[in-house]
């Protein structure tokens, strides 16, 4: 007995060791965190509606997801959704002391109906619904100690003395593990329990799955699997059993393709095939965000959705790609791969590694911990039976047993086969030289290096003429012709760029035996007639976006991979057509690409390998992938609003008739939903609104489109989901009519007719009024002209009179000036006589009697300051300078008579000498008078006093 136990333990250890050594390719994942879906971390259940919408039971409520937009729908009091079941338009949900359903109305909106409120003769007490089962005619809600049956609008509750684990409906019977009896049949119509006595199970039953027509697969909590036929149980052997036993199973399902997927509490998800063979495990060691699985669901496309204790995961089971996340131990960035029997030779930046590959089960076993060849491996290529490995050190040939040096030249980067001078050879580009390999006795051997060319070469191709096209590792490209013995370069031509402009990095490849070049912007080829490089217009046009590819690798037949830094396109190129067959996004590999050295290598006629950073991805090409998806494009919301987003009008999504929309609500917001989640984040949408758009809108990743301020008229909205290949995946149409605005209604038009008649009559009256007004205006204009003529004649008379007065004024001014000059001359003569008499008196002295002298002087003085002269001057001055003295007295009342006289003389612009003569004072007296006058009149010193008097009015 002890020996048997030891033997069993040893077997278990060996099996686990095998599973550890084997490294499996797993499906690609799309993971969602609470930041993505806007709810709680914890998710409990998953379901899918008939139209394809995904629903999740979350701690915050019910989550809905259409592949682009998440929506959260709340339960009363914000309760947790522990379980859910989608049936028809209803999403049944279970919670703590609450269960019911969300129902979608014809406008696409969800509303909640509680069934717990409809319970009769049953008081809920700590009942939490963990499972919801559809029996066809009933919906059963199960908690640990009770269950509730909903049928035909009525709800009935059953309380049991037993404790249930999970309800499983299989072959018209409800099964559950009951603590007292083990696996039992529960009569959900009466509440009775019947134990299955033959079920010798060691643990609680988690799920009973339909395995085939006659048998069910029983999955237990401790990982045991059984096939059940009737009440008979037989063990289902699986090499994943040791792994499941350590993980605590919580959920299980079988996909449509027959893969058994088991969700665990401690170790994520494990998949096995129908024969029990282990396929893969997804857990936190290979990028699953959480190890605790609370819910599983297989969607219509045979992909699996996982509700986790932290987040949601979409497992792309039905994908062309499987993924080996990372090798253990790490082998570095993989640059190239070649096959050798059942082994893979992996060329990395750390060396060349060998591993056994199980192509059927997609497992890599026996990865050698030490590399066969150390150092950076650039290229591993198979030519016939020989595998040649280009290394940082020398170039090696590799067989099943060992690696042997083949060439002494360091740094073999690339190597190509071609025919030169009628001989098949291999030409290798290295860090320095070109190397030539020839076949001797069926084996490829190193021949020689080529003289006359020393440059690092990254890519190399040989055209049909034997010309070698070598792309420099960093810049430009060379066209090389060799001598007949391959020993030296006969001619070499350097191309700094493909467009003959600035120097660029150039790569060279062969497509359908034609050499093509790329500078990462578009493709070029060599024109043999013009002997020059020209754009490859046809290829660029058909490739579209992928014309910017920087690398091209051969797959099979007429199919090639065109590689961009972020994605790779599988392209079929025939003499008549070029089409993109498929697109692989490198984002799916979680940023594990080898930057600038992404490579896709042929593994078989149906498989390719994508090289990654310490990982690989397998692309599986088969005819079934060519089939167009049968998923539909559906409208999830058709909403019309006014210009402010109010007055919402939802359109009945189920109606096939055109909708009539008020002109006030002429802003359309449309949401679409494409139900194939394998195109999530890759499908794009485009719209065309017939009646408004003449061409399709630009492709967009957004599933929401808005049209604003639509004019009246009939419209048909076309929407399409487009794959990255350009294929139309699905389409949807919706017709509607924008009604005329109120101002274009029938009543409005009648009013417009009446208004038009009224307007015509008004215009007639207005025209008649204008005619009369025009006649009056003409009469007034003629009268105005007559008055202007009279006024003109009067103005002319007035001008003549003014001219006459001006003439008279000039004459008076002349007379005043002459009178003034006469007085000045008289005073000058009298002053001269006075001076002469004074001289004579001084000469004669007493001989000239004083009485005669004094009498003469007095007579002279009286005539020099004659008031009569001043009166004459004043009279003449007032005639010319009207009101001058009056204005002076009014403005400056403190002025004296002498001040007024001085002001008058200044206005006449007389000199100080003339003023002195007129006023019979000295020149100094004149200056003193000027000073006093400036002070009394407050005239600043910088203003000329004479000019001030001339300008005074």
Supply the key terms.
953 residues, alpha+beta, Thrombin, subunit H, Methylamine Dehydrogenase, Chain H, Tachylectin-2, Chain A, 8-stranded antiparallel sheet, 6-stranded antiparallel sheet, 12 helices, 66 strands, 22% helix, 38% strand, disordered N terminus
Quick recap:
The chain has 6 domains: 1-28 and 237-317, Beta Barrel (Thrombin, subunit H), CATH 2.40.10; 33-159, YVTN repeat-like/Quinoprotein amine dehydrogenase (Methylamine Dehydrogenase, Chain H, 7 Propeller), CATH 2.130.10; 408-535, Tachylectin-2, Chain A (5 Propeller); 633-744, Immunoglobulin-like, CATH 2.60.40.10; 745-879; 881-953, Orthogonal Bundle (Arc Repressor Mutant, subunit A). The radius of gyration is 55 Å and the shape is elongated.
Would you kindly provide a written description of the structure presented here, covering whatever features stand out?
A hairpin with a 4-residue loop joins strand 24 (260-264) and strand 25. With 953 residues, the protein is an alpha+beta fold. The protein is 22% helix and 38% strand. An eight-stranded antiparallel beta sheet has the order 27-28-29-2-30-58-57-56. Helix 5 (746-844) packs antiparallel against helix 6 (850-864), helix 5 (746-844) packs antiparallel against helix 7 and helix 9 crosses helix 12 (945-951). It contains twelve helices and 66 strands. The longest helix is centred in the last third of the chain and has 99 residues, at 746-844. It has six domains: 1-28 and 237-317, Thrombin, subunit H, CATH 2.40.10.360; 33-159, Methylamine Dehydrogenase, Chain H; 408-535, Glycosyl hydrolase domain, family 43 (Tachylectin-2, Chain A, 5 Propeller); 633-744, Sandwich (Immunoglobulin-like); 745-879; 881-953, Arc Repressor Mutant, subunit A (Orthogonal Bundle). Residues 1-21 have low confidence and may be disordered. The radius of gyration is 55 Å and the shape is elongated.
